[in-house]
Amino acid sequence: MDIYLPIANMSVNALLIVALGGLVGILSGLFGVGGGFLTTPLLIFYGIPPSVAVASATTQIIGASVSGVMAHTKRGGVDFRMGGVMIVGGLFGSLAGAGLFRLAQASGQIDVLIGVLYVLLLGSIGALMLKDAVVALGWIKPKAAPETRRRHYRFIAALPMRWRFYASGLYVSPLAPMLLGFAAGILTVLLGVGGGFVLVPAMIYILGMAPRVVVGTSLVMIIAVSAGTTMIHSLTTRSVDIVLAALLLVGGVVGAQYGARLTTRLKPDLLRFSLSIIIILVALRMALGLTYRPDEIFSIEYF
């Protein structure tokens, strides 16, 4: 069943788009990620213009994150004060990202910018995840662990105006989480990702937050910033295709339920290894699309 996408200016198979959203939803349920970093490249591979893919994929992130926040809130796994500070930074980052997005659009380089950022980001994240997974599985021997790990970096401790974040067990300046939120906001606008796969490690290793509240707090920020990003794209870049967004959201919500059920049947370290391979393959495919060009980009047929 074909359906017309007004902003993308093309017809697509609606069932295929729903299935794509469902596939990413399953991955989200399996691996605990928003899925935006996979949704956008897959849409681009299908032929959706990169700017439309980025702007429309954020709606799926919102849907996948809401249920996660509800579950974490019930068990006290959310630091709402920390999340609020990060949201402020994220919203400012979204505005900055929208400005960069429009500049790239005006120069005609938005497709190249999105592709390069995805190759760099996915390549680095996939490589780190793969290394951690093979160590956890015992396929390679880990290096000797350091004797102690700093609570957080020195520059974090040196920032002024310290606040107490009781749920996170921190006494730090709000400027640090605000800067992290700012970076995540830029990523959300430019790449259509929630930023959780960057935020979570940063919150643990840079801020030194208690692991039990990291995921829930990051999801709070992701919901607010993704909603703001969708609004910004609608008003500034005008790249949000509501039909495409709705199809992805339907598939993603259904797929996430099945993915969550599969997590109880599969080994976590194998899941992480599988996700790292998927991420690396997507990065390689994006790199191929940026570098490879056919000998002839068009052909002429005579009738």
TrEMBL record:
The chain crosses the membrane at residues 12-38, 44-71, 83-104, 116-140, 178-206, 213-233, 239-258, 270-288. InterPro entries: TM_pro_TauE-like, TSUP/Inactive_protease-like. It is found in: Cell membrane; Membrane. It is a multi-pass membrane protein. Keywords: Cell membrane, Membrane, Transmembrane, Transmembrane helix. It comes from the Bacteria. Belongs to the 4-toluene sulfonate uptake permease (TSUP) (TC 2.A.102) family. PANTHER family: MEMBRANE TRANSPORTER PROTEIN MJ0441-RELATED, MEMBRANE TRANSPORTER PROTEIN YTNM-RELATED. This is Probable membrane transporter protein. It comes from Sphingomonas astaxanthinifaciens DSM 22298.
